[in-house]
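Folds abound. Consider this:
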Amino acid sequence: MKQSLDLIVFDFSGTLSLTAVEFGKSEKLVPVLEKSGLVKLGVASEAFFWDEIVYPTWVEGSTTGRGYLGVLTDRIRDLGLHAPEDPHPDETIQGAVSYLLDRYFDQCRIDIRWRTLLQDLNESPSVQVLIATDHYAEATSVIAGRLEDWRIDAVTLSQAVPGTRNPFIVANSSDMGFHKADIRFWRLVSDKLSLPEPYRVLLVDDFGGNEDSSDPYGDPGRVSVRRQETDRVLRDVFGDRVEIYSFLVEKANGITREAADRDGLYGFYICRAVSHIRSFLGLGRPL
């Protein structure tokens, strides 16, 4: 008889990685836009970067294998943003986007305060961990690399072996063709894993709530709707065995990450989430 597995699902940006969403704040992003050369190319403002470059390319960038570098380079070229005297505009654009890409993914780090839990989960034979993210294609290897730094192996969903415990699984929307809000994303997960009965599912996600307070994506109303829709979709796929933990860091508007860390705010919410996960599994420390 096969051993049942509890499925623990972590969101990446805003949950495991707090610095990933911090990169989008003005004080982080604007200097990088300038140093990359994108401002000289005509990316005249932060708003222009989001409204004319990122948002129009997001669906393609996050549901295909084109990647951040490919879709942003093409978009900037299509907008005609290049110096008239530049003899090699394509190379200049690609170089600028590559600089931005490197700075961004360097910030996509898993918070150290998750480390002990993740390593414990990695050693538990009764737990399957899946990191579900809406992201660019490059993020799959970045996330796997962050886990490898902590001696945690990871595979993509396509590499997973059905009906058994796998290493950590990175389920990236760009690899799967669908966003997490799409029921087809979770059907692919369920069908591929084919977990033996009985099993439970715990999703730990911020639903965009830890985004910059100025970003409409992080509006509390939208976050609430997103959580409700996710709950509905997960229950349609996995039934009543689903539990959702909203990882929302309640901080005052305008507080910086440095101040939040200094006050122990981020650490407090991570510790609280870790305690909930251990309680869900019915296990103390260590697992």
